[in-house]
Q: What sequence folds into this?
């Protein structure tokens, strides 16, 4: 058990720090799991690859598509020109009328008064116009509208006659934005699904290892990882982990056997010593002192057994008030300790009945030894509670001298005492370490703090039942 100095600290109690009105702001860090980190990195890499591929495809496809479109228009113009050259004036008019009835192509004479707009608007159209002039001649006119009629108009000459040939502009345009977006969307969807699959495949061995390690931490040593995996590094890690789990299981089994043997072997001579002292010692004071020493040794053995007890707990809703009253009833000597409870009778927490009882037993014993008032020499203990969200905070407070703030974090260290020079510290130094270990096994948290008015505050935080 840890003794206390006379310097009270000023740490804020856990119940005050966790209550909503007085909660202190804390920095929050968003931690991504390894799966999501791998997924986002892969998705970013593949998405960048998709966009780079699209840009490369558009750059490589741009020039050939423009040249191909220009060649198709030039072929159409040459066919029209050949048809007009092969006929006389009367039949030429008939050909012009028949061509003009088509939806995609229109042929009309070119008049000097015609008003037209240049076709050169973007890079793609400039390439088409350049190719048409190269194939049809430098006097070729390419317009985007003629006399207000939108379309791709090509002006050419036959002898002294000039003509306009209209072509559907949608057949010579670059790949549409809708088509590009469709293929990019499909590629991105495939990227997301592929990234998820790859990230899951990569992180599955690590997830299995993390799960097995958590079971080892909870005292379950039967976890086994796959030793036949194809990845050599993962296979070596799994084999090492399995070997470690087997060794830990063996150590745990040996420890349980050793503790049981030590408890039995020590208590047998203690019982004989107790009997011999009762029968052989005449001096009543010496007999009482010997009995006290034997009880102290027996209590120390119990502490060692409690601290080394396996971590198997059964969490069920338990009534805190009933357990506090049950454990407080064992401290009947009001000349040493007086315990009062302010816990509501309907307060339930998820805990193990035996473990929670052991928690209060050690806290009351710690207060009885080191939390006595300097005025009365009696340890006055108050048990209170507070509900905070999904948690219940149970506070055990005494009105003693408090603890040096520098030593608060060390009080739960096994065999640590706050004042090693005090000969009155007859405990094993395990009480608060047992409390912290038991609370952690039940999924809770344990914290010690000095009360502002003096005394020690022990906060036990457990989930609501």
A:
């Amino acid at each position: 058990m840890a003794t206390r100095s006379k310097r009270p600290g000023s740490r804020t109690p856990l119940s005050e720090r966790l209550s909503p009105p007085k909660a202190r702001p804390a920095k929050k860090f968003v931690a991504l799991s390894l799966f999501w980190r791998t997924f986002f990195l892969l998705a970013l890499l593949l998405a960048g690859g998709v966009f780079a591929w699209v840009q490369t495809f558009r750059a490589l496809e741009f020039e050939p598509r423009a040249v191909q479109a220009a060649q198709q228009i030039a072929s159409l113009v040459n066919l029209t020109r050949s048809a007009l050259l092969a006929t006389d004036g009367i039949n030429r008019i008939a050909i012009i009328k028949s061509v003009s009835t088509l939806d995609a192509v229109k042929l009309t004479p070119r008049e000097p008064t015609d008003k037209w707009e240049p076709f050169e608007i973007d890079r793609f159209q400039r390439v088409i116009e350049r190719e048409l002039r190269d194939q049809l001649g430098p006097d070729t006119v390419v317009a985007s509208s003629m006399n207000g009629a939108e379309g791709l108009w090509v002006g050419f000459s036959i002898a002294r006659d000039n003509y306009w040939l209209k072509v559907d502009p949608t057949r010579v345009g670059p790949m549409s934005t809708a088509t590009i977006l469709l293929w990019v969307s499909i590629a991105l969807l495939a990227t997301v699904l592929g990234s998820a699959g790859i990230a899951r495949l990569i992180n599955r061995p690590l997830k299995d290892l993390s799960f097995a390690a958590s079971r080892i931490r909870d005292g379950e040593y039967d976890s086994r990882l796959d030793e036949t995996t194809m990845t050599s590094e993962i296979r070596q890690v799994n084999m090492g982990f399995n070997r470690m789990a087997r060794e830990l299981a063996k150590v745990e089994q040996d420890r349980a056997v050793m503790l049981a043997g030590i408890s039995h072997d020590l208590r047998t001579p203690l019982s004989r010593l107790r009997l011999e002292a009762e029968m052989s010692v005449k001096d009543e004071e010496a007999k009482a002192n010997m009995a006290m020493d034997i009880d102290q040794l027996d209590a120390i053995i119990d502490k060692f057994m409690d601290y080394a007890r396996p971590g198997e707990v059964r969490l069920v809703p338990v009534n805190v008030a009933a357990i506090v009253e049950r454990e407080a009833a064992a401290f009947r000597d009001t000349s040493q300790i007086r315990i009062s409870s302010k816990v509501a009778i309907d307060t339930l927490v998820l805990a193990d009945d035996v473990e929670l009882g052991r928690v209060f037993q050690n806290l009351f014993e710690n207060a009885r030894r080191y939390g006595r008032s300097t005025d009365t020499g009696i340890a006055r203990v108050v048990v209170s509670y507070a509900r905070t969200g999904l948690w219940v905070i149970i506070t055990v407070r005494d009105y003693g001298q408090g603890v040096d703030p520098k030593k608060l974090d060390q009080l739960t260290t096994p065999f640590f005492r706050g004042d090693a020079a005090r000969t009155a510290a007859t405990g094993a130094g395990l009480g608060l370490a047992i409390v912290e270990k038991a609370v952690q096994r039940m999924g809770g948290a344990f914290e010690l703090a000095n009360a502002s008015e003096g005394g020690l505050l022990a906060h036990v935080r457990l989930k609501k039942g």
Summary: The first strand starts at residue 105 and ends at 109. Residues 278 and 284 are 9 Å apart (CA to CA).
